[in-house]
Design goal:
The chain has 2 domains: about 70 residues, no CATH class; about 100 residues, no CATH class. With about 180 residues, it is α+β, with helices and mostly antiparallel strands. It is built from 8 helices and 4 strands. The longest helix is centred in the first third of the chain and has 20 residues. This is PAR1 protein. It comes from Hevea brasiliensis. InterPro entries: PAR1.
Length: about 180
């Protein structure tokens, strides 16, 4: 029963937050709905950390400079977060996840790829920033998961725990995901 109440509470709180503010402003979103949300301005929200004066680390939702062309005023559903294998508590996003066969399988699954355009658009642009085409990666992941990883790595992507300049080059990527 508690599992049913949390998504309903999350939906209602986002609805009331939107109704009270009249628009979605990333800096006003709670941390548990920040990642994978899009402000009224059409800019993506992202979760960042900052150190308080006492040395403790806190999270805050910020507006990025990444503009989503066909969406605004959007808070991603828990169903899409689950089906796509993403984590709302992730700080920053990197194309490195595309190198993980388990993640790519979830991202390319029909329940994600066909029903969660916000997340697919984000990873489509991340892949494009690495010189890869997400539909091709998904085709390769379905037929040969190892081949899709090799294809992405041959485009110049390298797995690393810290996002490099090349993994953030999606910001200016003109490509847009299939809707």
């Amino acid at each position: 029963m508690a599992l049913f109440k949390f998504p309903l509470l999350l939906f209602l709180s986002s609805f009331f937050l939107h109704a009270a503010l009249g628009e979605i402003v990333c800096e006003n979103l709670p941390k548990d709905v920040c990642a994978f949300s899009i402000a009224s301005s059409g800019k993506r929200c992202l979760l960042e950390t900052y150190a308080r004066r006492d040395g403790k680390v806190e999270y805050q939702c910020r507006t990025s400079e990444v503009i989503v062309e066909r969406m605004a005023d959007y808070i991603e559903t828990d169903e899409c977060v689950r089906d796509c294998g993403v984590d709302r508590n992730s700080v920053g996003i990197s194309s490195d996840a595309l190198l993980e066969p388990h993640f790519t399988a979830k991202l390319c699954s029909p329940s994600c790829y066909q029903k969660c355009p916000n997340i697919v658009d984000l990873y489509f642009n991340l892949a494009a920033g690495e010189g890869a085409f997400l539909p091709d990666l998904c085709d390769a992941a379905r037929t040969n998961p190892r081949r899709s990883m090799i294809q992405l790595m041959s485009s110049g992507a390298t797995p690393s725990p810290i996002a490099s300049d090349s993994s953030t080059s999606f910001i200016g990527a003109p490509a847009s995901a299939p809707m």
